[in-house]
Each structure stands twice: as structure tokens, then as C-alpha cells.
Amino acid sequence: MKKNEQYTVECLSLTDLGAGVCKVDGQVVYVYDFLPGEQADIRIIKTYSKYAIGKVVALHKKSEARTDPVCPVAKRCGGCQMQSVRYEAQCDFKNKWMRDLFKDGDVRPILPAKEPLFYRNKAQFPVSVQNGQVEMGFYRPRSNTIVDTAQCWIQSRPINEIFAWIKTRLSIAQAEALRHVMIRVSSQTGEAQVVWIGRENVGLDDLTARMVERFPAIQSVVFNENRRADNVILGERYTVLHGRDWIEERCMGNRVKLHFKAFFQVDPAQMEALYQTAIDLADFQGDETCVELYAGTGTIGMAMAGHVKEVVGVEIVPEAVENANENVRWNGLKNCRYVCQDATAFVGEYAGACDVLVVDPPRKGMSEEGIGHIEKLDPEKIIYISCNPKTLRRDVERLAQSGYRCEIIQPVDMFPYTTGIECVARIVKERA
User: Fold this and answer.
1) CA 296: distance to chain centroid?
2) 297 to each of 92, 126, 238, 314, 376, how far by Cα in Å?
3) Do residues 81 and 419 make contact, with C-beta atoms less than 8 angstroms apart?
4) CB contact set of 172 (below 8 Å; sequence gap of 6+)
């Protein structure tokens, strides 16, 4: 099999990265935008020792799962991998991936989104200048090339409106000095935030004044200085150009003061489904002490506070802890507190109870050190919130060696039209 050779093949399955799988002379070929049961002519575009990458040249037989993408740049943008798949079929594929990954586990059907389009509350648009024109959009897959676009079909409509206004008013000089524009809008309060991210502020004060006049919902505008040479989006230093460095959000009935650097789930409706699932699986009796490691701004712990005796949250980022404790005071929660401490140091000093442990790690999952933290705290029950089922499976297997058994996994579709899956797992200690 060589580059540019063409073959007629049938798609056998779909990987959890959205690539169709077919075979040529026994060798696996991955082809994007190719669904199980479809037949097509493909061209080989890359070859490796154990597999090849192909591209559809002509589609002869279509799957019933296929639909026409609503987004005109879907085939070029790296944001959505499943724009050509009907939403119900997306959930079917995700259910299959979860069953294949946890063959012996109790994996429940994924909780679908009621609104699978225009759901995101935060966007980070890269900015560049090409051929004398300002370009804003999203990166092509596996590249730093921007796919210029007029709107994004999974970002909220208010985000799209602010984005379109900015895109047509940025000067060449301003765009050249910027790296990204971050926009966040709360669907609950309507408050909006814009963060200019770049090397220097080139006339952004005047542009900000005009933008705020056009969009009164914008309560926070920040210039974040980032001169780094890597792909880290936010820098350390920033200046508030309008209002404050936070907006007000809502989560499970609680008010949330959300700093522009703070993490917050991007699908607010599904976030509430996720957190309610976590509460339901925890099966609180009301007398538990709940410890949350890597707590961020405290939204999960605050949601659980009304169901337990005490919540203790641990986070190493000072701004996040300050944010979390402000949120606790804001909501008058007397049984909830957050400490700014490295998790290892906290575990070494903590002398209180830990009936239920809540963890919500990044995509890479728990570190070996983190598994050690769990062993030392020795909780009866772990509520593990995961945005990466593969690392969840790895960590479930690690915890099994310490006497823990995963009882239930509930997937939640937090990221429609992408391959992303969020899960909540209930993991219990098996006592001798």
C-alpha cells in the first residue's frame, strides 16, 4: 500500500476519535468522515508501519446515521468531529465505545443533551493576519492554520454575536498583536466577558468602549499579556479594561463568581445533569464528610453541601481557592470550606473524616501520586468525574489493586457533535 493509491472499501467500525476503520489487504486504514456500513473509494494519504490514513474520494453507499453538516466549515475545522452524524446516532456510537471500553462494568446509557447545538458558554478564538485580512476561527486538525469562520454552531448565540462584531472591527495592527480572543457568556445570568490575549494592548481600550456600548451584557473585559513561545493560551499578567475580572454564573441554584482564569463546564445544561448524577450516585445520607481534591472554584462541592454534614475542598491555584471561598460566602454555605494546598501536603496533614471523596481530574486522569492520596484518605466511596473514559478505565484498574470496586458508570453527553464523553463513576471500598 502506497501513498495516492486508491481502493474501494467498506467501513467496519468507528473509533472513539471519529475515524472510520477499514482494511486493505489485511492492513488497517483509518478514514475520517466514513461511517460503519458505508462503501467508498478512498485514496491513501499517509502510510505508517502498522496502519495507513485514507481520504474518501467517492461515497457509493451511505449510512442511515449520516446527515449533512449544518456547519459550512465542518470538514476543515478541528472542533467538531461528528458533524456528519445524526445526533441520536452520535449517542449510539458513544454508548458502544463505552461498552467496549468497560466490558465488565455497569455502564448506563449516555444522558443525551436536550440542546445539542449552540450550547457552549466559552470560546477561545485564535487570531491571525493572512494576506492583509484578519482571520478568526478555529484551528485545522493537527495544525496551527486557522479556519476562518463567520460563526460556530456549538457556541452559544450570544458568543457568536460578540465574535462576529469583534472580527469585523479588529484592525490589522490589533490582530497582529493578539493571539486569542476568549469570550464567555452565562446562559443563566446573561453576563458576558471578553479577554484579549496577546503581546500588547494596541488600541483595545477604545475598541472595548465601543464593544461594551454595543453589548451592555458585557460586565468584564480583560487584557491578558502573553508573550510565551508555546501553546499555553493565558499569561500571568493582566489588566481589567472594563468592569471586573469575573462574571456571575449559576450552578445548581448557587451563585458563582467566575474568574476569567477559572475552569467551568462549557455546557451549562449538561453540567447540571452531570452534577445531579454525581449527587444521585453518591447516595448521601446527610451525615457524611465529603472531601473534594482538585476542587477548582468549588462548584461541585457547593452543589453537594446541602446533602452532607461537611465539604472540604482542596486546590493548589490561589485564585481558584479565593474564588471558591467567595462563592461559599456569597451563598451563605456554613458547612463548606476550601483550602489552598498541594494535595500531597493536605493528605499528609488532614486528620478529619473522609466518607466520600470527589475527584474531577484533567484528561490525563489521576497521577500515581493522586492514587496514593486516595489510599491514604481511605474513603468508603469515591465519586470520580472524568472527561476521558480511557484514563478513567486505567484509574479504575489501579484502584482495584487497593480494594476498590467500580459499581456504576454514567456517561453524560457534555460535548455534542464531538467525540468527547464525560462520565461519573461510583467506586466503593470493599472491606474484608
Assistant:
1) 14
2) 33, 26, 19, 10, 24
3) yes
4) 129, 132, 134
Q: How far is CA 169 from the centre of its chain?
A: 29
The pLDDT, as a whole number, for residue 1 is 85
pLDDT at 351: 87
Residues of the chain predicted below pLDDT 70 = 432
pLDDT for res 297 = 87
Beta-bridge partner residues of 28: 23, 51
Query: Which of 426, 369, 353 shows the shortest CA–CA distance to 107?
Result: 426
| Distance from C-alpha of 308 to C-alpha of 290, rounded to nearest angstrom | 7
- pLDDT at 104 (0 to 100): 84
Catalytic option among 336, 354, 387, 423: 387
Residue 300: CB partners within 8 Å, gap ≥ 6?
A: 275, 278, 292, 358, 360, 385
In the numeric block, which cell numbers belong to residue 412?
453524560
Let me know the angle formed at the C-alpha of 372 by 421 and 335, rounded to the nearest 5 degrees.
75
Cell 481557592 belongs to 321
What grid cell was written down for 151? 460563526
Per DSSP (E only), the strands in 233-334 are 238-243, 246-251, 254-259, 289-293, 310-315
DSSP labels, 78-144: SS-S-TTB-HHHHHHHHHHHHHHHSTTS-BPPPB--S--SS-BSEEEEEEEEETTEEEEEEEPTTSS
**Is 387 assigned a catalytic role?**
yes
The total number of residues shown for the chain amounts to: 432
Alpha carbon distance 109, 92 (integer Å): 9
Alpha-carbon distance 158 to 267, whole Å?
A: 14
Q: Please count the CA atoms within 13 angstroms of the CA of 23 that sit on its side-chain side.
A: 5
Using a 10 angstrom Cβ sphere, with 0-12 exposed, 13-18 middle and 19 or more buried, the burial of residue 114 is: exposed
Give the list of residues 6+ apart from residue 195 with CB closer than 8 angstroms, or none: 181, 182, 183, 184, 221, 222, 223, 224, 234, 238, 260
Three-class SS of residue 402?
A: coil
Burial 156-185 (b: 16+ CB within 10 A, else e): bebbbbbbeebbeebeeebbbbbbbbbbbb
What beta strand segments (E) does 263-345 contain? Answer: 289-293, 310-315, 336-340
